[in-house]
Write a structure and sequence with these properties.
Length: 56
Amino acid sequence: MSGKEHGDSGDSGLTVYSCPMHADVRSDRPGTCPKCGMQLAPSKVTDEPHKHGGPP
């Protein structure tokens, strides 16, 4: 084998699906928003801290 475990895609992120118009609507699978019916958009969630400006 190549050193990766079976089923390991190689990234450490988890895909979550959220509504582009309603950020509070999140799912672990594709579907539609219960509030507006839009398709939920996939995004990766990682364990890395956010890198943005602000107090240390």
